[in-house]
Design goal:
Helix 3 packs parallel to helix 5. Helices cover about 30% and strands about 25% of the residues. The chain has two domains: about 200 residues, Enolpyruvate transferase domain (UDP-n-acetylglucosamine1-carboxyvinyl-transferase, Chain, Alpha-beta prism); about 230 residues, Enolpyruvate transferase domain (UDP-n-acetylglucosamine1-carboxyvinyl-transferase, Chain). It starts with a strand and ends with a strand.
Length: about 450
């Protein structure tokens, strides 16, 4: 699907969709818990659907339902009936199954250690750039702890894995993907010996590990962390900590995942960031359903926009950004790499230069996202330069418009759509259907705000 967007004045309130990152973690834990869990979730993106599909293949039941409270108010969501448990209370998965991860890196990296810990045998499939995205050092550690893993090459799927998996000490390079760390933490309640995980510097995307610790805490499993002072903290303490000197995570043995019954999924700051970027470049858009104390790393969009001269207001879970006199700035995005696209849309129109560093892992996303941002802005009359693994953008007063290849990358498509709001000519986005990966209703919402959106 190609989409053409004509510059227009946007106005209205957007409800941030449920966080994809949080939903995927909660779905997996729900499937491993002791009893059914209701997950309030109005819409499911392609990545969430990939996780659901794999959990169903393993033997969990995931059903769309409407929950009614005593007042009669209905909430749409998913009821997860977990895997059956053996007499000892251990979940038992189906074996010899095929797990289609689509293009979801989180689904693959979370479930590989979980499947091994379940002592199951599964064949992981994927598409797009997923087969090329790294799995070592995670697979190296799984092999060292008893798993069997078969793969033709490091850049191909399928990946065939089989347990059992032992616990104990694991060592992971923290600079490749935080999803390796989260996957091991999600599997940890299944390990008879518990988990003693050592994350070696550089430790990047730390907020995503905080999300995992927080999710486990909601199911009654405590994640302890060693910090520089030698102290320990539970998941609540971890959620507010800085991890520069906290590279050891301990999940003690014999903890059970206890269903909390009903769970809400807070709004997604990664998607809200695009609407706040739209406000920064002139739209009158407010974003609701946001947790202002969230441990999501992309909540940093508020501070980042303020640094660029944007007036940011917050009240009761509703945020608004108003930009006048935008100016360039420098950003280390090692902990929140997904902000590069919304911030790049703002930087393209800010006075002076904006520099993004800590972004090397963006080359391993759905596209080489650094190159895709550069190419997209160049197609629209912007000025962007790659300096190795860093991105520099020099602002212009107005973009010219044109055609952008989304490169099968959902965040590139959304960035181009926001840029279209300040372009002299229409912007056509090729392959715009890729937004379904994380935000399937994005263009529908854009249209309701007043944008001219034509699909072809």
């Amino acid at each position: 699907m190609d989409v053409t967007i004509r510059a227009t004045s946007l106005a209205g309130t957007v409800r941030a969709p449920a966080s994809k990152s949080i939903a995927q973690r909660l779905l997996i834990l729900s499937a491993l818990a002791n009893a059914p869990t209701f997950l309030a979730l109005e819409h499911a993106s392609a990545d969430i659907e990939a996780t659901i599909r794999c959990l169903r293949a393993l033997g969990a039941r995931v059903q769309p339902v409407d929950r009614r409270d005593p007042s009669g108010l209905s909430t749409r969501g998913l009821r997860v009936t977990p895997l059956p448990h053996d007499p000892s209370g251990r979940p038992v998965a189906l074996s010899d199954v095929s797990l289609d991860c689509g293009e979801s890196g989180a689904t693959l990296r979370f479930l590989v250690p979980v499947v091994c810990a379940l002592s199951s045998h599964a064949r992981f499939e994927g598409e797009g750039r997923l087969p090329e995205r790294p799995l070592a050092p995670l697979t190296d550690e799984l092999l060292r702890h008893g798993a069997t893993i078969e793969r033709k090459s490091a850049r191909e799927l399928p990946l065939v894995v089989e347990g059992p998996l032992t616990g104990g000490r694991y060592d992971i390079d923290g600079g490749v993907s935080s999803q390796f760390i989260s996957g091991l933490l999600l599997a940890s309640p299944l390990l008879p010996e518990g988990l003693d995980l050592h994350v070696h510097d550089p430790f990047e995307s730390k907020p995503y590990v905080r999300l995992t610790a927080e999710a486990l805490e909601r199911f009654g499993v405590h994640v302890l962390s060693d910090r520089l002072d030698g102290g320990h903290g539970d998941a609540q303490a971890i959620a507010g900590a800085h991890f520069e000197h906290a590279t050891r995570f301990i999940v003690e043995a014999h903890q059970r995942l206890i269903s909390p019954g009903d769970l809400d999924v807070e709004g997604d700051w990664s998607q809200a960031a695009f609407w706040l970027a739209a406000g920064a470049i002139g739209a009158e858009v407010r974003v609701s359903n946001l947790n202002l104390t969230s441990v999501q790393g992309d909540r940093a969009i508020l501070a980042a926009l303020a640094l660029m001269g944007v007036r940011v207001s917050r009240e009761g879970g509703v945020c608004e950004a108003q930009g006048k006199g935008l100016r360039g700035a420098a950003f280390d995005l090692s902990d929140m790499p997904d902000l590069v696209c919304p911030l790049a849309a703002v930087a393209a129109l800010a006075e002076g230069k904006t520099r993004f560093f800590g972004t090397r892992r963006l080359r391993l996303k759905e596209s080489d996202r650094l190159e895709s941002v550069r190419a997209a802005l160049a197609s629209l009359g912007g000025k962007a330069t790659l300096l190795g693994d860093e991105l520099e953008i020099e602002g212009v007063p107005e973009l010219s418009g044109g055609t952008v290849d989304a490169a099968k990358d959902h965040r590139i498509a959304m960035m181009a759509a926001i840029c279209a709001l300040r372009a002299k000519e229409p912007v056509t986005i090729l392959g715009a259907e890729c937004v379904s990966k994380s935000y399937p209703t994005f263009f529908e919402v854009l249209r309701t705000l007043g944008a001219g959106v034509e699909e072809a």
